[in-house]
Design a protein that fits this description.
Layout lengths: L5 E3 L7 E5 L4 H13 L3 E5 L5 H12 L3 E4 L6 E4 L12 E2 L4 H11 L5 E5 L10 H9 L3 E4 L9 E4 L7 E3 L5 H13 L2 E6 L7 H8 L4 E3 L5 E6 L8 E2 L4 H13 L4 E8 L6 H8 L3 E10 L1 E9 L8 E2 L11 H9 L3 E5 L12 H11 L3 E5 L2 E6 L7 E3 L4 H11 L6 E4 L11 H9 L2
Parallel strand pairs: 2-15, 3-14, 6-7, 10-11, 18-19, 22-23
Antiparallel strand pairs: 1-23, 3-5, 4-5, 7-9, 8-9, 11-13, 12-13, 15-17, 16-17, 19-21, 20-21
Helix pairs in contact: 1-2, 1-3, 1-6, 3-5, 4-5, 7-9, 7-11, 9-10, 9-11
The structure holds shikimate-3-phosphate (S3P).
Amino acid sequence: MSSDRITVTRASRGLHGTITVPGDKSISHRVAILGALGKGSMQVQNYLCSEDCINTLKAMQQLGARITPGNTPQNFTLTGTGMQPCAPQHDIDCGNSGTGMRLMAGVLASLPFRSRMFGDESLSSRPMKRIIDPLASMGARITACGKKPGCAPLEIEGCKLAPVHYELPMASAQVKSAVLLAGMLATGTTSVHQPAITRDHTERLFEHFGIPCTVSENGLDVAVEGPAIPTNKDITVPGDISSAAFWLVAASIVPGSEITLLNVGLNPTRDAIITVLRRMGADIRINNRTECGEPYGDITVCAPQKLVGTEILKPEIPNLIDEIPVLAVAAAFAEGTTSIRNAAELRVKESDRIATVVGNLRTMGSAVEEFADGMEITGGTPLHGATMDCYGDHRIAMSFLMAGLQAEGETTLLNCHSINTSYPGFEEHLHLLTSC
Ligand code: S3P
């Protein structure tokens, strides 16, 4: 469990050591959902035991999935319902997780019972119309009953849905996946067109579980043939590159660092953080690259002589959307200007990540200009420690703790409990890498 307040000082000897970051959050949610609907039992290894993914697993248990514990909390046997789920007895708590709520909405809207999903304050103010609209066009009956229009709690009157072709108005893997999961349960071909390539874990898992799915050559069009029942098959979840990203940046900004991160997912729809950091001058090497449904490998990072600013290209944005807060921290330590535009989606994440990143960077003394769709950071000015809020946002907490490792004086992040939503064990890793 993360403490509520975490304080760091400059890591004057650099970061050193080898760690294994926890399992991938996006893949863990999808494994729980598909496995719960699937036929038969499977061993799940390295599931992310964070609050978000545990909430999704509990929701799936309410639908009738059975969990038999293994040797560690991350390893267990999941027995699916063979597409015979039962109605949940209680309202489903999605906690802080937009992914959990949006993906489960695609499934629950297609099942023959009523259900209700709710979340915490942050999730209750995030837009749900983006999944309600396409699912409604398939015949779904979903009511957003939150205080804010179009927001959770969601009340769902499940029914048989019709297939659809949907043009995504925004590059969102969550929306794409909600429609594809509903399409898996509908009769016929459901297809989506995305304006840019987004993470493809749903498509890869469809293949793993034997669900007929096709992807166009340019990767923008995806179709699923329903109805189809997943065939459960053992799976190992790779480490989360979004969690690894904090250490990639820390080791690149703190002189004298050399660290290795083991078994990190290297899916090409998620690896732009590596491309962009290398473009900025980072020394990142990948060893033991291998593939098992998802590519993964070991990453070694050494502090470079210097980092330089860069322009993040429009098609790169969906590929590193969750890494932008920590990339902005790297930019603050880089020579020159880094431009991050076309990223208005950041305003509807766990916090308004444009406002929270710009605010905290300025508090630490960095020169940042804010735009409606991003920010421009002029790096090179030494940062000073400060006490800052993370606004209930796990990635803001961890990003600014990384900044604190190369700032003058003490840096304290308040309300860090949210780190448990994605990175259990973060404080232990922080201690391990900074204490050698
Ligand atoms: C996710 C997709 C992204 C990402 C989120 C996880 C997923 O959200 O920010 O953390 O697992 O599909 P959007 O699809 O809304 O951009």
